[in-house]
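Students often ask why inverse folding is considered easier than folding. One informal answer: many sequences map to the same fold, so there is more than one right answer. In these notes we will look at a single instance of the problem. The structure comes first.
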């Protein structure tokens, strides 16, 4: 393709040439960036020319933390998001049951009891009466807890005598000791009894997720999934149907099989590649499993769950390093972050050299941990969109004073940390404008809190766009080809119908992408 874009406001992300109004693409690369007149002179008879006045063009938006095929699968599950009560949730489930056959699994995702009027966590009794002939599993919004009925417990053989799995918890009735129907950090116990989707079904899930991403201006994602999902994505790439760039993180259990399949550090293609091993230091805020130095403010008996203890964390990081891979560690609580950083530090003593490790989420931290964070050069992989649903529960669960260092992205930048943005889709929408809005306003979409939650932590729009672009490229070791708009880089571009810099942040969520370009190809046009 020989394409030139004119009269658009271009945020290049390149500090040498931060702004431009036109650019030219030949085949898959950007060849020229500058003023309209300059680009006009570079055009030939076969150049397609597009005038885009009033638009904003940025480097391709990359969601640096999602669960991509799971996003496509979530579209097939009962949508439990944004419900205001347990009764509303039950009604949605009943409608799905009415369309199902006895014995079929009933699957839903997105419930969040912190948004319900009574804020009571559900139990299996709240499912049993409406799912008498079907096992049912409802995944919490965060993905770290599940709510299941008695038939699901029976299918999985979970009883009062079943021991808690390593790094997980089966909630039990304090009187009888029977499982309540809430499992924390223990989805595998149930999911291994649910018939897995076929390869063809997984491909269709991925295609649905891809369509959703491209329509939202996303040109690439970092997905935290398994070889099962990789297989579907690789099949789509072989068929020429993979349009996004997908950087795939893998769990340690898949590393031997990955090596057998020839999946090596930094290997892969321009569309699908891998270099990080995904580990878990703790759980989530909403599930009460984020690992904290001090007890939860609303439950002095609770400090969260260590999904991997320090010894195991270090061992698995060393395993990753020994194979030439980097480490990505899920750490939401402040103690989980401390453990993750100190484990990386210890592992690097045995494996010196360049590492591009990352900590996923970094939702709360102790200021005294930031110097080590910076010294190690670890990337903070955060999800600003979480703030909209989390600020109120965080105040309650962690307490206002501790929350001064929660979702504190300005402090992370001031500590000279690299910071990249994602959505954790399907936990939240993959739409990057929602993340930009949260990062800049510190508010939910209803404008709450009215002055912003700890407004001193607000970011600029420019810094927020960099979080979706240049850092994500560096973390995947492709900063020489991606992340900025400059000659020689691959032509991955997001073009918004309106210039965000000229709008109030409150208007951003209603702005639509005009065009999404990946590798020089227009893969979405409004």
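Output (designed amino acids):
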């Amino acid at each position: 393709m020989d394409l030139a874009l004119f009269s658009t406001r271009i945020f290049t992300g390149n500090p040498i040439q931060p702004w431009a109004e036109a650019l030219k693409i030949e085949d898959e690369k950007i060849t020229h960036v500058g003023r309209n007149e300059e680009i006009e002179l570079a055009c030939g008879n076969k150049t397609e020319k597009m005038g885009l006045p009033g638009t904003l063009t940025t480097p391709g938006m990359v969601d640096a933390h999602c669960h991509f095929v799971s996003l496509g699968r979530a579209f097939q599950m009962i949508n439990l998001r944004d419900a205001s009560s347990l009764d509303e949730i039950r009604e949605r489930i009943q409608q799905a049951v009415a369309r199902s056959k006895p014995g079929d699994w009933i699957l839903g995702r997105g419930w969040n009891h912190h948004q319900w009027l009574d804020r009571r966590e559900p139990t299996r009794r709240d499912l049993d009466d409406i799912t008498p002939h079907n096992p049912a599993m409802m995944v919490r919004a965060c993905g770290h807890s599940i709510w299941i009925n008695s038939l699901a417990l029976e299918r999985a053989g979970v009883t009062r005598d079943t021991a808690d799995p390593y790094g997980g918890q089966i909630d039990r009735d304090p009187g009888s000791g029977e499982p309540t129907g809430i499992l924390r950090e223990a989805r595998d116990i149930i999911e291994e009894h649910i018939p897995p989707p076929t390869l063809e079904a997984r491909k269709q899930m991925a295609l649905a997720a891809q369509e959703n991403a491209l329509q939202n201006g996303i040109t690439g994602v970092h997905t935290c999934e398994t070889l099962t999902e990789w297989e579907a994505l690789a099949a789509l790439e072989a068929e020429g149907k993979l349009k996004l760039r997908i950087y795939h993180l893998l769990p340690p259990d898949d590393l031997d099989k990955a090596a057998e399949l020839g999946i090596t550090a930094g290997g892969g293609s321009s569309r699908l590649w891998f270099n990080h091993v995904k580990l878990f230091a703790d759980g989530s805020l909403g599930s009460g499993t984020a690992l904290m130095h001090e007890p939860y403010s609303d439950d002095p008996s609770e400090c969260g769950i260590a999904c991997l203890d320090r010894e195991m964390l270090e061992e698995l990081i060393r395993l990753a390093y020994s194979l030439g891979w980097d480490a990505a560690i899920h750490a939401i609580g402040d103690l989980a972050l401390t453990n993750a950083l100190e484990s990386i530090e210890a592992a690097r003593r045995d494996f010196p050299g360049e590492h591009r490790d990352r900590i996923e989420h970094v939702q709360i931290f102790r200021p005294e941990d930031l110097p080590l964070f910076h010294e190690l050069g670890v990337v903070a992989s955060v999800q600003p969109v979480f703030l909209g649903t989390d600020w109120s529960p965080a105040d309650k669960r962690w307490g206002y004073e501790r929350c001064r260092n929660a979702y504190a992205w300005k402090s992370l930048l001031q500590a000279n940390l690299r910071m990249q943005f994602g959505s954790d889709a399907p936990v939240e929408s993959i739409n990057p404008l929602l993340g930009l809005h949260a990062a800049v306003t510190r508010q939910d979409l209803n404008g709450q809190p009215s002055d912003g939650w700890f407004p001193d932590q607000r970011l600029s729009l420019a810094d927020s766009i960099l979080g979706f672009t240049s850092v994500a490229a560096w973390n995947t070791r492709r900063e020489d080809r991606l992340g900025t708009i400059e000659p020689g880089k691959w032509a991955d571009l997001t073009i918004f119908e309106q210039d965000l810099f000229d709008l109030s942040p409150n208007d951003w969520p209603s702005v639509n992408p005009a065009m999404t370009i990946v590798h020089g190809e227009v893969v979405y046009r409004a």
